Structures are given as C-alpha cells and as structure tokens.
C-alpha cells in the first residue's frame, strides 16, 4: 500500500462552547487519525466549527455564493479525502445551522467522498435521526456514507451505559471504518501542465538562428 498524506474535514454544528457535539467530533477525529497514522499515512485535519461561520452561512444562502473565510473553508472541505459530520439533534432532526450549511454546499463536491455521520442528543430514542434524516441528506449529495454512525446521548458521556455498547467502543469502530475508506480512496492525479512542452521565447529564437 502506498502511504500518502490524507486530509480529513470535520464539521461540528454545536451551538455552545464547550459542546458535547464538538467533543464527539474530536473523539471521532482522534480515532480516525490514529488508525490512519498506524497504517503509515500522514493526516491533515481541517475542523469547521459552524458556530463561527453562522452569519456567513446565512449570507451565502441569501446571495447564492460564499465569500471570505467561509469560501476558504468550503474549498478545503471539497479537497478532503474524508468527512466527519456531527450535529446536535433538535426535535428529532439535525440543527437548522447544520442544514443551512449543507444547503450551500456544491451539489457535486461530495461525490463518492467517505462520510461518517454522528449526532448528540438527550436520549437514545433520538438516535434514529441518523438514518431517517441525516443519511438521506448526504445520500442526495452522492457521498459515500458509511453504514457505521455514532449517536451519543447524555448518559453515554456519564458512562451509565458502559456495560452495553459503550460509546468509546462505538467511536473506535467508526474511526476504523472511516480510516479504511479514506485510505482506500483513489486520489486524483495531478493535472499535467498543458504548456509544459511549449518552447520558451528564447528557444524559438535559437531555432531560427537569431
């Protein structure tokens, strides 16, 4: 296997600081990066805290195009080899900020991109939102959505459910699955310079004996 530099984009839609959403995003990132580095890859992480770009996201929805720091962030996301997307759940679905961010994404930019979905919420009964709301959202964008997804309820952080399917084990499994998908992804070859074989002005003069 050829070891390369891989770029991981991490989108966190937490509204508070600190937030359990960002904490889950960081844990999933650590697990994924650890697996890739163990396999010999160098990893670059681009973390996107949506709370910091909330106004720019709304502006992009109104104008039809992103500008400034948000445009830079989106370009880095589009160039990534894998994506971790984490949102809090409100009234059984993703946050409005998360949906607004997805709405301004280029419709073809996530094609075949490995995506790990994760969410936080008050009780385990909200976990179904991963499959009936988040997954269709990224499937519509033709992303390669992993079958593995992680939901963290309030009790998961307190360790009350450690005896059955504990959160650390679910995070580790998700990290392994995303790392495998990212490592297997074919990176686009560097485009050849169309003017590489064009002789310079000096060379043309030399050919004419000038």
Automatic annotation (TrEMBL):
<dbReference type="InterPro" id="IPR029039">
    <property type="entry name" value="Flavoprotein-like_sf"/>
</dbReference>
<keyword id="KW-0288">FMN</keyword>
<dbReference type="InterPro" id="IPR005025">
    <property type="entry name" value="FMN_Rdtase-like_dom"/>
</dbReference>
<protein>
    <submittedName>
        <fullName>NADPH-dependent FMN reductase</fullName>
    </submittedName>
</protein>
<keyword id="KW-0560">Oxidoreductase</keyword>
<keyword id="KW-0285">Flavoprotein</keyword>
<dbReference type="Pfam" id="PF03358">
    <property type="entry name" value="FMN_red"/>
</dbReference>
<dbReference type="GO" id="GO:0016491">
    <property type="term" value="F:oxidoreductase activity"/>
</dbReference>
<feature type="domain" description="NADPH-dependent FMN reductase-like">
    <location>
        <begin position="8"/>
        <end position="156"/>
    </location>
</feature>
<dbReference type="InterPro" id="IPR023932">
    <property type="entry name" value="CE1759_FMN_reduct"/>
</dbReference>
<dbReference type="InterPro" id="IPR051814">
    <property type="entry name" value="NAD(P)H-dep_FMN_reductase"/>
</dbReference>
């Amino acid at each position: 296997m050829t070891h390369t530099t891989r770029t991981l984009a991490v989108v966190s839609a937490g509204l508070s600081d600190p937030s359990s959403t960002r904490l889950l995003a960081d844990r999933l990132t650590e697990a994924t990066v650890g697996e890739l580095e163990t396999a010999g890859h160098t990893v670059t992480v681009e973390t996107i805290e949506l709370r910091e770009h909330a106004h720019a996201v709304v502006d992009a929805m109104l104008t039809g195009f992103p500008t400034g720091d948000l445009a830079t962030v989106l370009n880095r996301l589009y160039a990534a080899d894998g994506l971790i997307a984490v949102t809090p759940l409100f009234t059984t679905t993703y946050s409005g900020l998360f949906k607004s961010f997805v709405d301004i994404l280029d419709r073809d930019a996530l094609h075949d991109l490995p995506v790990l979905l994760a969410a936080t919420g008050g009780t385990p009964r909200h976990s179904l939102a991963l499959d009936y709301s988040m997954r269709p959202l990224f499937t519509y964008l033709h992303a390669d959505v992993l079958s593995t997804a992680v939901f963290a309820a309030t009790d998961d952080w307190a360790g009350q459910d450690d005896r059955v399917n504990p959160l650390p084990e679910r995070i580790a499994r998700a990290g392994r699955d995303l790392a495998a998908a990212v490592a297997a992804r074919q990176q686009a070859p560097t485009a050849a310079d169309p003017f590489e074989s064009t002789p310079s002005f000096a060379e043309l003069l030399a050919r004419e004996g000038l």
